[in-house]
Amino acid sequence: MQKTLLIKLSIIAGLCVLFAIGLNMIGSVIYERQSYSESVIREIAQQHVNPQEVITPFIAIPTTVTPECEIKGSEATSNCAASYSKIETVFANQTQATQDLEVNTDTYKRGVYHATSYNGALKSDQNYTFDSTLISLNEPNNTNNQASDSVDTATNPFINKIKPEKTIIHWNKAKLIIPVSDLRGVATLPTVTIDNKSIQATYPQTPMLKELTYVEVAIPQDVLNRPAKPVASPQDNETLSGTGLTNQPSDTESTQAISIIVDLPLAGISNLNTVPTGQNFSLTMRSNWHAPNFIGKALPNAKKFTTKGFEANWQNQYLTVTNNQYLSHCIGSANNECAVTSQASLDTSSQSISRDDLIAVEGGTMPDSMRLSSFGVSFAEPNDVYLQTQRTMKYALLLILVSFGTFFLFEVIKSSRIHPIQYLLVGCALFVFYVLLLPLAEQIVFWKAYAIAASACVGLIGWYTYYVFGGVKRAAIFTVTLAGLYASFFGILTTEDMNLLLGAVFCFVLLACVMVMTRKIDWYKVA
């Protein structure tokens, strides 16, 4: 008698192992379909538009620097270093950025696969002043050396003299730089308003910044003239010669800030990153997407979710100041030796300034390229069909065990005789549920696919168990139990934050029910 029980349990265990192997094969199919979906999204990104990374606009001013040189004898025989070009950056004193985005999943499709895209407007309201830039560029260089050299040279023309460093600021080439990682997402060139004057941005004819994609706006000369404050230096006339910059006669005159408003239309897929620059930066993002994934080096300071979507606000002074320092160091390198790279990817892991870059800059050397710290939002679907199907698969073996266990209890308690082939057929019906679920979920909403696949399998098994048990009552009990299992598993899947806890409680309750039902069975007498 005990030998018969042992053989039956061994057959049930063997069937469970067999179905576990089959479930593993279905898992590989899910992974394959998921990989193919990701490859389709990458193809869409290559052919249409990538995820976007936007650097806060800043002003770039080309300069030409002639290094300090020691003249031996005469200038004709001296061996002085050649002049080199560099770019001075002017960051906004205050930036209020706003991003209004419409997100949908219908724009880019390939069969049953699609990419989550966004389309909207980015607005930056900025204020600039040039005082600190003028003071740093116009500081007197080696004035005392010049005076002594002129005396010494007058008495002895063969004594070496020092030719001070000379900086020429090309104000007529000052540009407002608006970096966007993929300009294919900018359908129309943005409109920039500088002190209530609208100017259309253009693509750079000769890019000042290598490896950085951007559009630019030439700063009007009258705007540059107005905020200039005089700097008491004998080199002012030389440094500012030919620039068109007019010094005001009074030191007491206050500097008026330049107001620059940038309206940038932008489209992209999957995620949007923002690189903050300036002194006081704040960002507000509004979107109709209900399940954002905040990514990057900073989370929002405040966020609000409504029936229409979400609104989030960022303000991180540390990241902003750090970006200012390393952006100005990199762009201001001699002859543009360092390049700022800006490129978002489908991978939502944050990319930022590397430790090697920080050590190089702090040590006085300049890396070939540098990435800045950013933050933003990923619009990828939080529970796509493949993730939900994989989570459903985790309860598959438990579902089969419970079904086989129910069959076995009917054999023990109700003295029903069930052949191993009947166990196999019921297990196959349970197995087919997962075969149906994935292709249905790729076509329709997941909960509908789950309901259709579960109803089909429960109905088939309920009809079959009517003949196995030889009665309506027992078949109805088994069918209701099976339907309850499917409903319970779906309820656990939909509670993302508590699914592990609910799953553990469910297993405990299930075990308790089995122990209560079998508490009076004498297993030594079971045939």
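Above is the first protein from milestone M3; the second protein from the same milestone is given next.
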Amino acid sequence: MSPRPLGRKIAAASSGLVVALTLAACTTHPSPEVAVRSFLLSWQDGNHADAARFTNGDPAEVEAALADVHDQLDLASVRFNLGGITQDGDRAVAEFEASADLGIGDPVWTYTGSMPLTDGPEGWQIDWSPGVIHPELEDGERLAVSYESEDRGQILDREGEPLVSSDSVTAFGVLPAEMDDKEAGVTELAELLDEDPDPLLNRVRSAPPEQFQPLVLMRDSSVDRTLLEEAGKISGVQTEEVEINLSPRVAPFLLGDVAGTAEHRVSSRVAGAYQAGDTVGLSGLQNIFQHELAGTATTQVVTLGEDGRQTAVLESWDGVRSSGVQTTLDLELQNAAEGALENLPGNGYLVAVDTGSGDVLAAANASGQASDDGAFTGSYSPGGAFTLVSSLAALDSGAVAPGSPMPCGYQSDIGDRTFTNPSSGFLAGEPDLSRNLSFLCNVGFVDIASEVGGDQITESAAALGLGADWQLSLPANSGVVDINDDEGDVAAAMVGEHGVKVSPLAMALAAGAIADGTWNSPTLVPEEGPAPAGAGELNEAHLEVIREGMRDAVVNRFPEVGSGEEPVYGQAARAEQDDTALHWFVGYRGDVAFAVLAEVEPEMTMWQQYAVTAATSFLAGDAVEGQQQPLTDDQPLAEVMPESDAGPNE
């Protein structure tokens, strides 16, 4: 058995007994009831020396025995209720009910006890023996609390593959029976390991003295010979090697940190029943599903003989077995996503979802940090990637119809804003919406902004999930679309430059809706919650126009992304935010929709479209080291059109 969780020390209130008589002036105990009430009330209040006066035992021994019970059980409090008393001449037997609070996170142990009394020269006194504490406690025995915890469960991908590695950990602990001075020894160990000694002492005091008590866990990489030698000099200190499901193999921000290692200082950071030596999820899914992954301990109140061996189990509370948590992640796609971001010059994110369900298949950051959840919670300007949304708004509003002309000039002045195309070119002939989308013609989109209107942009964005109320295990940002009535701002919103902020997750879901025809709320752990109200099917004819434009964008501008057999649909764009260049690629292939965001220094945009590079790597299934793609979306629009279509837009 392993030790019990952290208890708590609080002052016991005296509300459990009502003393009807004034006892302070009494030198004898005129009745069994007075003696028993006085004894229990003093014990309840922690006044053990006073309680001993109502027994015929050696006062020092009785006081020590009652005090030991408090430490042996690590009691938060104890309450008593007096039961019946039977009397036969100068002898009596009194029953009582005890409620012993074993501390935070532990149960309350309730049992019925009894005590014999004898009337003598000092009046009625309790005949002292260990059985007064508990009927089954014999001479030479003591109480203890045994705590047996569950092995930490796994987090699994959609196919049952483990996502957390089993790490070798060194457990620093003590064998209480071999300690010369428990308080001094535990304090010395805590100082050596930079831990708070108080919760460690609470654990050791109530533990079976012959059982090893693991107190602090440290990764083997953090343990050197010097540390082991210093710990070994402390009496009773021992170390053991244990295996714990501790480190995320992938997606650290999703899976989260597990405490129990010295670098997390869990004994001082985690409240409740957990302390150093236990494993506690501090973030991500490890935190959200702590109860399922850690289970709950089996707690037992036991008696121990003089040799420290268990002699009886007085009470037992079965814990809940730990279990695994299955996610919607696809380990193969997750590895591909993380590999695709390895060569970014700055931070970046990639999120992939199932087009038909909204299941999150992969979510990665380039930083590799567990605290970097920008893939879900980030708030970024989408720039031209938002034309996927504004195309739907243009069609839904009737501002343009499938196949109808939608001119694309060099430049347009709307309100106090001047808009140009990213390439500074134009589209000759009679381009339609699909062609404007494929060549990212900002001017074409802003020119129809007044006919579309801010309300329609907002409505179409909501139909693609932007701003929806998601039911997801972890925090997520569904995006914000907040457009005022200024004509220049409405035009800017059409190309994602005003009133629009999104997360990579939100854009991946929008791409999934375009592919599937229905927006699906995201899921990371199955059965997380119902889909938000209002999610429904989209206009298939309008979506087909957008799909055509996305496919042409890949074929004409980024053929390297679609080099495989299965067609790829997407849109690439750049935006500026907080002196940072944001490179986007949003698209889908088959039943996988994805969004890539790369954050780079503005001056680096001359050399590479980093989101396109990462998307290419992701779809290929591995990182493409050193690959650089030309900025084909910046080629003049007239130059990338067939010769018969090229020429100035008169």
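Note on the second protein: The first helix runs from residue 32 to 44.
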